[in-house]
């Protein structure tokens, strides 16, 4: 059987094979050995890293891309640390430290955390492999796949195999209810199975045992192997939690609880499960508004969690309702297309814009055709040409797609003028394209709508449907828990309490807000809102704390421009001029120097192209124009390209939709806010920050002045990932959009609360932040010292990390941070806090009125919990800093990984809450502290800009044609623009 030998660390991966097959297609096995290996690779996701596969005398080398990338990342970490003479960091988490009298008013909160009563029962764990036998070949099957349809199909195969094996070998496996299988590679049992062989025990099934499951194979082998010779854990033994070393924590019991509580979802026909903790009820699907080809299904998101409890650690289940959009199965692509595009033409001649729309919606979708035999395809896109327009050579004759289906299959197409679907695949080193009539393609089941398949209408509709207020959410959670059988007697070797935990939290005091001229306003503690108004006139606002400036010294002509990109430019010059005057009036009234009349110009999409010699922004840069306000037609979406121009030509931009500008009533005058006073204020808040200003200054509550001390440097780190490549894109060798580290710091001279930053590129889909981390901290500490020579503390918010990454952060990232600070001559105390919103623990007031609107059903801004539902050993708190306007609050969790100052946890809580008022763009706190929030925005900006370039360009590659992230960062990052918060 293929085995990874661990010796080929830097083997260059071959392009992944993309020919799609189904388990029932083995009768189509080709005589080509490489094609047969390709079939197994795609059908079953062979678990092979670097292996020599022999078949019919042919030897093939296959290298798994993911393993190679992982090895390269590890090598890069080790190389960077070795170059700096650094050893791995300690993995000890600081001790919890709580003060007797922490700030804030007490408040009772309901959660979605359910306590478990664990039996004193032994648990045994086994590894599971499923191997297909074909002659002298053995192919290991892996039940994982990135594509939904394939992933569920693999699980269905594993389910059928497992149930048949248990049925045939009751003498070995005993009672079915004592077994807990994740349909992948892990089996738990609460009875000791008579399987002790180190190599495992093999159970053979024939294809007659599993008709139609695996196709034409000789036999199916189900191998069960103990994880160790004497592996056993006791369910109610939580002593493994008594450690402060994050690396030594065991996760076996949590894994068992999650798999055990998911058995009904995994084996029930009405449930579909993609990961152990997330499942959906298929029969709950409801058509999405305006798009009946997509169904919104309800489900549950679940995880096991060990908490502090009352006096001793407790095991719990966290249950949350969950919804997802699925593509409606069993309908043709033609029916789906007509439901996805409004006013589908009767003659099927669709306009190019709608073709582009459905191409985006259908890309990556799995379909099947059923003519002389069933075939399955992954859709690569939709083209405008119809079945009569596309021709190809068939047995020496040129025929159209329409003629081919009529002659080959006797199928006369009912919609010959409709667009065609295409499916691309590699075959014998060449790209082949199959053209498929929409009416013949049937959508396969269990496919969620991916982010890039969504339409704006669907997104808006789903957001509204998923925004469930707490009173309704509690009911949904109860319903889904019932569906999982969590309260049925004798279902599990543990019991789940019927009611969720109630905990005590605190309501923290907010900071006060100071504007220009020392004018201070107070924050409404119940909403987190404040207003910067003078007296009673809501359109007369207080001056900025620090005004920005669009002027370049020595340049008097046109320091700014207003451009418009619209389909119909009639009257646009006048509209743009009025809008420019409104912006100037608001900015001037709030303390900025008056803007002179701007350059006003109509531009075309072609003038935004980065390589165009007549590029509009290139001309602005040549004329030393610093700021451009761009009005964009609502039908266009050039935001990414606009921001790429901003980065390349160093012209600060702000784009606004034409509909927003049209809503202004300029005849009403400035005193009335042109009828859109709030919109005008929001635009100018952005403008002032982009141009180096600071809208307001935060004043911390009494006793917490050191939060904004001049010698405390703040750093935010965020991360953004691009969408994974399709199989066809991988096969073409297309480069993935790299992952992006966003950084934000208070290194500007204007004020210690002024924030700006940059971004850096690294390996795609990689969560580790090791790429040039020492250099980043060296650079930003040096810039901070130029404006404030002394740094006593460095406080880092590191976003985008899961609990499983804490060990890697402490071992690898923290030593690099310290090394960077040391290189800058900084010997400061380091604090590292990891905020996360990827969990699903929820909290809401203990008493809720169902008739109240969302803000009143949710917790108030500043609500914090640091007891009972937090980690038993590690310092942790949950803080809701924002007001929830719809649905239920997604409360961030904060974990303190480094705390050189060893301060009580409430000081970290106050720091995070105070900084949530520092975003500067609206009169509301954000869900994360400003350094973290803005760093994530920089990461997202870096990803958007990378998407505007051809990443296969040699300028971004090294000598071996691999992506060179240093080159990419040098070419595409902000550079000198890191002194301006251009992503405001």
UniProtKB/TrEMBL annotation:
Domain Piwi: 625-939
Gene Ontology terms, MF aspect: RNA binding
Superkingdom of origin: Eukaryota
Gene3D superfamilies associated with the record: 3.40.50.2300, paz domain (2.170.260.10), Ribonuclease H-like superfamily/Ribonuclease H (3.30.420.10)
Domain PAZ: 345-445
InterPro entries for the chain: Argonaute_N (IPR032474), PAZ_dom (IPR003100), PAZ_dom_sf (IPR036085), Piwi (IPR003165), RNaseH-like_sf (IPR012337), RNaseH_sf (IPR036397)
PANTHER family for this protein: EUKARYOTIC TRANSLATION INITIATION FACTOR 2C
Family: Belongs to the argonaute family.
Record-given protein name: Piwi domain-containing protein
């Amino acid at each position: 059987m293929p085995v990874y030998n661990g010796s080929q660390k830097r083997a260059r991966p071959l392009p992944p094979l993309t020919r799609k097959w189904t388990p029932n297609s083995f009768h189509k096995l080709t005589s080509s050995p490489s094609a047969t290996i390709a079939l197994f690779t795609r059908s079953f996701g062979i678990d092979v890293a670097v292996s020599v596969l022999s078949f019919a005398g042919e030897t093939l080398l296959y290298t798994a891309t993911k393993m190679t990338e992982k090895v390269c990342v590890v090598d890069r970490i080790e190389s960077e640390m070795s170059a700096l003479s650094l050893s791995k960091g300690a993995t000890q988490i600081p001790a919890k430290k709580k003060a007797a009298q922490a700030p804030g008013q007490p408040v009772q909160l309901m959660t979605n955390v359910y306590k478990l009563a664990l039996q004193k029962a032994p648990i045994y764990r086994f590894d599971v492999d499923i191997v297909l036998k074909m002659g002298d070949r053995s192919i290991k099957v892996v039940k994982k796949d990135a594509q939904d349809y394939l992933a569920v199909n693999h699980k269905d195969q594993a389910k059928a195999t497992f149930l048949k094996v248990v049925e045939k070998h009751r003498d070995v496996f005993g009672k079915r209810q004592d077994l807990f299988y994740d349909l992948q590679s892990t089996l738990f049992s609460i009875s000791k199975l008579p399987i002790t062989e180190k190599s495992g025990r093999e159970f053979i099934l024939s294809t007659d045992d599993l008709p139609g499951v695996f196709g034409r194979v000789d036999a199916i082998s189900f191998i069960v192997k103990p994880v160790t010779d004497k592996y056993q854990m006791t369910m109610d033994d939580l002593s493994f939690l008594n450690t402060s070393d994050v690396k030594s924590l065991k996760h076996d019991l949590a894994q068992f609880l999650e798999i055990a509580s998911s058995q009904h979802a995994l084996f029930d026909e009405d449930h579909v499960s993609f990961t152990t903790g997330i499942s959906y009820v298929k029969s709950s699907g409801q058509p999405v508004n305006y798009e009946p080809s997509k169904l919104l299904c309800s489900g549950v998101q679940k995880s096991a969690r060990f908490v502090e409890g009352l006096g001793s650690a407790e095991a719990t289940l966290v249950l949350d309702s969950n919804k997802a959009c699925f593509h409606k199965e069993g309908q043709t692509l033609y029916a789906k297309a007509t439901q996805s595009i409004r006013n589908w033409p009767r003659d099927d001649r669709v306009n190019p814009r709608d073709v582009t729309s459905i191409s985006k919606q259908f890309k990556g979708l799995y379909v099947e055709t059923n003519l002389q035999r069933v075939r399955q395809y992954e859709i690569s896109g939709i083209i405008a040409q119809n079945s009569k327009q596309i021709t190809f050579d068939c047995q020496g004759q040129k025929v159209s797609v329409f003629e081919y289906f009529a002659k080959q299959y006797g199928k006369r197409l009912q919609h010959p003028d409709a667009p065609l679907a295409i499916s691309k695949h590699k075959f014998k080193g060449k790209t082949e394209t199959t053209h498929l009539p929409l009416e013949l393609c049937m959508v396969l089941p269990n496919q969620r709508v991916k982010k890039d398949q969504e339409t704006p209408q669907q997104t808006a509709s789903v957001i509204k449907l998923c925004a469930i207020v707490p009173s309704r959410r509690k009911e949904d959670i109860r319903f889904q828990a019932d569906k999982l059988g969590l309260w049925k007697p004798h279902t599990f070797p543990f019991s789940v309490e019927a009611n969720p935990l109630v905990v005590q939290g605190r309501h923290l005091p907010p900071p006060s807000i100071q504007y220009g001229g020392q004018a201070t306003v107070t924050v409404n503690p119940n909403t987190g809102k404040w207003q910067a108004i003078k007296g009673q006139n809501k359109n007369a606002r207080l001056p900025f704390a620090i005004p920005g400036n669009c002027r370049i010294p020595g340049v008097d002509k046109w320091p700014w421009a207003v451009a418009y990109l619209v389909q119909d430019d009639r009257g646009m010059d006048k509209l743009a001029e009025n809008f420019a005057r409104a912006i100037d009036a608001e900015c001037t009234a709030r303390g900025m120097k008056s803007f002179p009349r701007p350059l006003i110009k109509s531009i075309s999409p072609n003038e935004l192209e980065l390589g165009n010699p007549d590029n509009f922004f290139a001309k602005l840069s040549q004329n030393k124009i610093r700021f451009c306000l761009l009005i964009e037609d609502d039908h266009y979406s050039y935001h990414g390209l606009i921001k790429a121009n901003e980065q390349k030509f160093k012209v600060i931009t702000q784009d606004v939709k034409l509909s927003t500008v049209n809503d202004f009533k300029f005849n009403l005058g400035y005193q009335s806010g042109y009828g859109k006073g709030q919109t005008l204020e929001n635009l100018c808040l952005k403008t002032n920050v982009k141009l180096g200003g600071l809208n307001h200054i935060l004043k911390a509550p009494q006793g917490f002045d050191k939060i904004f001390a001049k010698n405390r440097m703040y750093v935010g780190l965020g991360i953004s990932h691009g969408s994974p490549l399709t199989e066809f894109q991988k096969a073409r060798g297309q480069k993935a959009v790299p992952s992006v580290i966003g950084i934000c710091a208070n290194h500007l001279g204007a004020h210690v609360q002024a924030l700006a930053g940059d971004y850096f590129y690294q390996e795609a889909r990689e969560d580790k932040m090791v790429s040039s981390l020492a250099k980043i901290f060296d650079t930003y500490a040096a810039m901070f010292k130029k404006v404030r020579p002394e740094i006593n503390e460095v406080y880092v918010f590191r976003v985008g990390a899961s609990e499983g990454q804490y060990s890697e952060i402490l071992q690898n990232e923290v030593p690099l941070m310290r090394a960077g600070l040391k290189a800058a001559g900084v010997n400061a105390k380091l604090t590292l806090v990891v905020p996360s919103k990827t969990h699903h623990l929820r909290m809401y007031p203990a008493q809720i009125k169902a008739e109240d609107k969302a803000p009143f059903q949710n917790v108030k801004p500043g609500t914090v919990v640091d007891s009972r539902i937090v980690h038993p050993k590690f310092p942790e708190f949950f803080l809701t800093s924002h007001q929830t306007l719809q649905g239920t609050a997604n409360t961030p969790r904060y974990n303190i990984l480094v705390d050189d100052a060893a301060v009580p946890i409430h000081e970290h809580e106050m720091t995070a809450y105070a900084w949530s008022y520092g975003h500067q763009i609206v009169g509301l706190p954000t869900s994360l502290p400003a350094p973290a929030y803005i760093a994530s925005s920089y990461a997202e900006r870096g990803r958007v800009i990378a998407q505007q370039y051809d990443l296969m360009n040699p300028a971004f590659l090294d000598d071996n044609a691999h992506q060179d992230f240093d080159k990419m960062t040098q070419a595409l990052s902000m550079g000198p623009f890191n002194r301006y918060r251009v992503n405001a």
